[in-house]
Design a protein that fits this description.
84 residues; 74% helix
Length: 84
């Protein structure tokens, strides 16, 4: 993996973690964080540039989805649970 691609992947990973941590609900927040970490760990060994590019596109789509869900979650925020 080229250094520029590696830095893009790391940047996407950090943005996804940051956005996932903004979920107002504890359950959604922990689920999203776990999914992001697991997805990146599962694809850690991918070296093919086309596959990396495809995974980056999917990651950017997931980032947009997370951002939308966070904003919707903040509009309809439920009462805090004991865990939070």
């Amino acid at each position: 993996m080229a250094s520029s691609t590696r830095s893009q992947v790391i940047s996407l990973y950090k943005m996804m973690l940051k956005e996932s941590s903004r979920f107002p609900s504890y359950n959604y927040r922990t689920y999203a964080l776990r999914r992001v970490r697991d997805a990146f760990r599962a694809n850690r060994e991918v070296e093919d540039p086309k596959a990396v590019e495809k995974l980056m596109e999917e990651g950017e789509q997931m980032l947009a989805l997370i951002q939308r869900q966070v904003s919707v979650g903040k509009m309809y925020e439920a009462q805090r649970t004991v865990v939070e």
